[in-house]
Automatic annotation (TrEMBL):
Gene3D superfamilies: HAD superfamily/HAD-like, Haloacid dehalogenase-like hydrolase
InterPro entries from the UniProt entry: HAD-like_sf, HAD-SF_hydro_IA_REG-2-like_cap, HAD_sf
Domain of life: Eukaryota
Protein name: Haloacid dehalogenase-like hydrolase domain-containing protein 3
Any matching Pfam family: Hydrolase
């Protein structure tokens, strides 16, 4: 008996597995700054500032602030502001608000993402073989509600986005296991980029 014939469910991570970012973070922060008449921030400093700010926010307010009942936009606004500050760019409130709105709306669309060429064929093949396909991700709600459908990935039968169920990546596998057990699926595989 082949492995595929015994497989009932495949869950797949999103970023780095089905989709990737186009360009660099600095591209989007530069466009946002230029849209309000500011010079481009240094790409390397912005990248390092973002990594640091994101790590801090994820540590203090995991799952995009879900447990603290922090609205998603507030979480990202803090993260983006800290990214700029850590990179050496501290804008007044009015200027920052304009820059932030541009960044937030860009990353809430499909514009900064690209679909890996084998993503849709792979998902179609799994469904054709009778395998239930799901997405399990720590991504925020805009992935499920806006970004994935805009990229043509809205034909998933099962999805768990951790901010909605309040789990972070280290315990995601237990969420998958729990989900599989609840649905009485005994043969499942999780696919991710790590």
């Amino acid at each position: 008996m082949s492995i595929l014939s015994r497989l009932r469910c495949v869950t797949i991570d999103v970023t780095g597995t089905l989709i990737a970012y186009k360009g660099e973070l600095g591209d989007y922060y530069c466009m946002a700054a230029k849209s309000v008449g500011l010079p481009c921030p240094d790409y390397k400093r912005m990248h390092e500032g973002f990594k640091s700010a994101y790590t801090d926010m994820a540590k203090h307010y995991p799952c995009f602030g879900h447990a603290a009942k922090m609205p998603n936009i507030v979480w990202w606004k803090s993260c983006v502001r800290d990214s700029f500050v850590k990179a050496g760019y501290d804008y007044d409130e009015e200027t920052f608000e304009k820059v932030f709105r541009r960044i937030y709306s860009t990353f809430g669309s499909s514009a900064p993402y690209t679909l890996f060429p084998d993503s849709q064929p792979f998902l179609r093949w799994l469904r054709k073989e009778g395998v239930t396909v799901g997405i399990v991700s720590d991504a925020e709600y805009r992935y499920k509600d806006v970004i994935l459908p805009a990229l043509g990935l809205n034909q998933v039968y099962l999805s768990v986005f951790s901010p909605r169920v309040f789990v972070s990546l280290p315990v995601r596998n237990s969420v998958v296991t729990s989900l599989v057990e609840k649905l009485e699926w005994y043969r499942a595989v999780a696919v991710e980029d790590r």
